Amino acid sequence: MKSSDNIFFDLSALKFLGPHAIVGKTVRVRKPERVSIGEHSIIDDFTYISCALALGRYSHVGANSVLIGGDGRIAIGDFVNIAPGCRLICASNDYAGGGLVGPAIPAEYAGKSITADVRLEDHVLLGAGTVILPGVRVPEGVSTGALTLITEKTKLEPWTLYAGTPARPRRRRESKAILDAAARLMAGKGGTPA
């Protein structure tokens, strides 16, 4: 992809852009020097990123997703799929009071903020509209149904499907076939992307 293919920023300003990675023409990245995108990963159009981001290999961020958090960081592993409309938030205001709220407020008038990194391990699948709040670590193989809410207090187990607000476990996921397919792909025996 040429550096002129995005209308909001020059792709060459990214900290790292892996081979065969695709960044949609209308993806908005506020601080591209803090964003790394792994090989064969895709970020779909109308996605907004305003924090540090490390996106692994063969991962996908669906259209209209928001990854925000100012000075925070979101780390996403390999083979992760984030469906359209998801919200990953690594910084937020403390809405309990103690000052004015929002990015337009000068620091001396602002209330307390909460900043805590978010991490999605390998093979995580987020259903459309899933919301992840600051400080969440999503273990390997977790998947969520549409409109799931995950907070720092949510106890997540690897290879489990969660759904609801708040997220509740629904059933275990089969990991062997997924891990075998990933190993074949990384060994060069995989097919072409769909």
User: How many structural units, i.e. domains?
Assistant: 1
Q: What is the CATH C-level name? A: Mainly Beta
Strand content: 25-35%
At CATH level 3, the topology is UDP N-Acetylglucosamine Acyltransferase, domain 1
| Biggest beta-sheet profile | 6 strands, parallel
Cα(first) to Cα(last) distance is 19 Å
The topology string of helices and strands comes to: EEEEEEEEEEEEEEEEEEEEEEH
Name the CATH superfamily classification. Hexapeptide repeat proteins
Class by SSE composition: mainly beta
- The rounded Rg comes to 17 Å
Total E-strand runs: 22
Neighbour order of strands in the largest sheet: 1-4-7-10-15-18
Shape: globular
What features would you highlight for this structure?
mainly beta; UDP N-Acetylglucosamine Acyltransferase, domain 1; 6-stranded parallel sheet; 30% strand
Describe the protein:
The structure is a single chain. This protein has 194 residues and is mainly beta. The protein has one domain (3-186): UDP N-Acetylglucosamine Acyltransferase, domain 1 (3 Solenoid). The chain is 6% helix and 30% strand. It contains 1 helix and 22 strands. The protein has one helix spanning 176-186, and strands spanning 16-17, 22-23, 28-29, 35-37, 42-43, 48-49, 52-55, 60-61, 66-68, 73-76, 81-82, 87-89, 91-93, 113-115, 118-120, 125-126, 131-132, 137-138, 143-144, 149-150, 160-163, 168-172. The chain has a 6-stranded parallel β-sheet with strand order 1-4-7-10-15-18, with no helix packed on it. β21 and β22 form a beta hairpin. The mean pLDDT is 94.
